[in-house]
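Design request, tokens follow.
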């Protein structure tokens, strides 16, 4: 597989974690599980393959996607298709980054995977055609960056007090959640409303997503893990609470997760590996 990354420049860099492009992906599976990260994505297929989402229990298809789609913030894992010889391009917005480009509250796309043209109109389909025809990764990144700059509305940027609260949630221990709320200069309702608008969920749930992703980072590539230490260091009240939370976000209990080697990637893993 050929994999390329790009960080945009200028004002839009404050809103985008990364742009990614890969070609010649050859998975040894056809369905993979993606766990919540707290991000919103615009995803382009550049290979003509039809993608699917699946019911998490039966693994029967429940959604079909072509060309370009938007994946909102998810509170739970989702199951998606993987294809041989695939080529894709992805824009990953940061926690509050999508609103200035999508122009609608993030709660309206949370827990959804949507055809991008339903939100962004024909311009996103035109960009996809340009990406398909671009000869090099650098040309593709330049085209996407140009579209993002044209789409960007600075006045929709999240206010500073919200960004400060998010940064505190990322840095402070879980036990200090109430401290973060107390430090917020306005009412808790105001903070919750801003979170729903710019992030797509509440501060408390966002913190749960952060904590789960911290766990995934701690156990990545490890063959042996002290789950008691992980639970304690990540601020869970007891072992049963930790196991319940881990299964909620991944679909597996912690030991199954390690035994099936799902900790080789940070936030996705195969379900039907051959």
């Amino acid at each position: 597989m050929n994999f390329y990354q790009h960080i945009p420049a200028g004002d839009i860099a404050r809103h985008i974690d990364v742009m990614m492009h890969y070609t010649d992906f050859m998975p040894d599976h056809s369905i993979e599980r993606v766990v919540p990260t707290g991000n919103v994505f615009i995803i382009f297929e550049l290979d003509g393959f039809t993608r699917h989402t699946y019911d998490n229990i039966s693994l029967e298809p429940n959604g079909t996607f072509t060309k370009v789609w938007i994946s909102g913030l998810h509170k739970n894992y989702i199951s998606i298709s993987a294809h041989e010889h695939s080529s894709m391009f992805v824009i990953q917005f940061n926690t509050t980054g999508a609103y200035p480009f999508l122009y609608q509250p993030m709660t309206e796309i949370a827990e959804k995977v949507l055809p991008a043209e339903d939100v962004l109109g024909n311009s996103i389909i035109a960009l996809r055609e340009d990406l398909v025809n671009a000869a090099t990764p650098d040309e593709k990144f330049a085209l996407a960056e140009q579209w993002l700059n044209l789409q960007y509305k600075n006045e929709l940027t999240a206010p500073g007090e919200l960004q400060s609260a998010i940064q505190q949630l990322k840095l402070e221990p879980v036990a200090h959640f109430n401290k973060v709320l107390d430090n917020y200069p306005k009412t808790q309702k105001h903070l919750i409303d801003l979170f729903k608008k710019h992030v797509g969920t509440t501060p408390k749930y966002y913190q749960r997503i952060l904590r789960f992703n911290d766990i995934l980072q701690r156990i990545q590539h490890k063959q042996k893990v002290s789950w008691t230490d992980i639970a304690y260091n990540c601020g869970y009240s007891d072992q049963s609470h930790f196991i319940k939370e881990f299964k909620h976000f991944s679909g597996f209990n912690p030991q199954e997760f390690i035994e099936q080697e799902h900790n080789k990637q940070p936030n996705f893993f195969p379900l039907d590996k051959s």
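Comment from the thread starter after seeing the answer: thanks! The longest strand covers residues 16-25.
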